[in-house]
Amino acid sequence: MTVTVAAVLAADGINIAKNVGFGIIAFGMVFAALCVVSTRNIVHAALWLVVVLGGVAAQYILAGAEFVAVSQVLVYIGAVMVLFLFGIMLTRAKIGSDEGMFNDGWALGIPVAALLFGLLGWVIIDYAGDDVIANQTPTPTVMLSDAYLGPFLIPFLALTFVLLAAAIGAIVIARKD
Amino acid sequence: MNVVALLAADPLLDGELRWTPLLIVVLKVLVIFVLGLVGTMFMVWFERKVVAGMQNRIGPNKAGPFGILQTLADGTKLFFKEIMNPARSDPWVFRLAPFLAFVPAFLVWSVIPLGGDFTEGRDGTVTWFGQVTRVQLADPPVGILLVLAMSSIAVYGIMLAGWASGSKYPLLGSVRASAQMISYEAALGLSLAAVLLSAGTLSTAGIVAGQNSLSNWNLVATGFVPFFVFLVAVTAELNRPPFDLVEAEQELVGGFHTEYSGIPFALFYLAEFMNTITMSAIVVTLFLGGPQPITIGETTLSIGFIPGALEGTLWFVLKLLAFLYAFVWFRATLPRLRYDQLMDLGWKFMIPISLGWFLLLAAIRTGDANQWNPVVVVVSSLVLLGLGYLLFVAALRVSARNREREGAMF
Fold this sequence. Notes:
heterodimer, A: mainly alpha, Four Helix Bundle (Hemerythrin (Met), subunit A), globular, B: 2 domains, about 65% helix
């Protein structure tokens, strides 16, 4: 029975291995995401978030976007989360569970999450519908760089101003006066 | 096919998945695993022996000839030690941290070209069991970025080890370590960018293939400055002397691994020495042509009686040994930096100089492509960089004066 299902799916051009892989990683990510918001230790929460971000990188590799995957690891796991942990260690490096980890308005998060889920689901269904998305081969890094240093140069530069604003903001906050 | 295609700039994995290529990959993994561990054991012995020589001592000399089995003896001893979990530690993270340090150290091996046939202008591929392949485990198009990603994951090992130990010295050591590694990663990345600019590819095999003569070695092609910045940044990234504030014995007992014993400690120790080897290998790959022989003009320094495929490995090992010796040499001769000196060197010297040099190289390349007068390009770039430097110095002066006015001590 399973063999025939697999054969039907394969005949429709659906990559079974990829879908199974996606499912496994996605399950892990959802579990880790739930742990982020439910654990009572702030360092553990940060580590679970690292697992979620690592899962995102794995999904990128599955989709053939390896450059984006490595960037994800470098930027989010290697820089952002390290700074998170660094901040936590410098301020409240306590081992064991913390009190008052939960915001009073936590219930508000549920409708926001549902709304976001609905929005993303609608976007994806609107984009692909019942079509099978073609198998992506890995994009060469050269093509990516040609794209964002060529036709997409202005948006790329505009994005850098976001970082500049963040850097200036950090300096303003860190100033003692 | 997709994940396989991802690893397949290596000609071995082109086409359908068959048994022979699969077995060759498994064989490569095994060989790299064994060589990695044996190489690390050798490195520990080498460091102890050379430092002993420089300090007029004998060093390990009991286990095996010249004490070469000393590391094996130490490792065996550590296997039988009790693994302690301090009462105030965080049990899960405490156990996880050594692996977070050790596994990335191993994974870096996968993208290093360890050899190849470069005789008579060949492209470094070899033929094993009728399959054309490269002497490296994987050659992903993102190549060298994988090394950066691994080294940024290795930060977690040290950071979490310090935090999870639940005691003061490890925490201080790990905060120092992560601050240092974050600071120097920027200079590391910028000098790496200069190499990528001259190589035009991220793949390690591609970077090696471009350096087919002495004048094409990135050491020369990028004008020496990125090489020295990279070497210093790597030393800091490895937490090796003179940048070993992380485990400054006089101040922090053992630093982040103070509370570790037995095999978890051995994992940290191995990771440290393995990182030394892999990072030296990365320096060789990026700047010194990896397994390429030394070619000056038309003449190649060739070792005649050795078959071409082995010669690449030999060159690689020779170049690698030079750097391993240099790292030991640094350790034996340089005094440790003070913390503010470390941060000043990283942020106020290495990052500006590697950024400026990168911009200069980019300007020269653009000038070349558009056939501008090279003298004008270089002079105007230097004037611009000089102005930028003056601005930078002015900013430092102003901030120093402001701090003095506020009455700060430093």
